[in-house]
Amino acid sequence: VQLQASGGGLVQPGGSLRLSCAASGSIRRINGMGWFRQAPGKERELLANITSFTPHYSHSVEGRFSISRDAAKKTLYLQMDSLKPEDTAVYYCNMCTGSGTQYWGQGTLVTVSS
User: Fold this and answer.
1) Who is most buried in 15, 23, 31, 66, counting CB within 10 A?
2) Closest CA to 59 of 46, 40, 44, 69
3) What pLDDT, in 10s, does the model give residues 17-33?
4) Residues 80 and 68 sit within 8 Å (Cβ to Cβ)
5) Hey, which bits of the chain come out as E strands?
6) Per residue in 57-68, pLDDT tens?
7) pLDDT of residue 86
């Protein structure tokens, strides 16, 4: 199983980006998928996750970020609006299977700067 994250880049404050995470390989059952980020010198933090079709958000991104999942395409998305400089980080997608195994994408860098 592999997760391929994409969509990061440089954006001005107040701008938007959409991250994608495509899963490939044999996946029997997915318990949940989520997005994390890690800024320089900080611990990796959970931003949002989705189990079945119920999303959950951290306080730092609630109201600005939206997580969604296309089960047919085995793809996870993160729509990020009203971006702030403090959102600058490497963003990682994560998948937890029915057996409890966790997989991570390779990370995609988001830089919010004018």
Assistant:
1) 23
2) 46
3) 999 999 988 878 888 99
4) no
5) 2-6, 9-11, 17-24, 30-38, 45-51, 54-57, 65-70, 75-80, 89-97, 102-104, 108-112
6) 999 999 999 999
7) 96
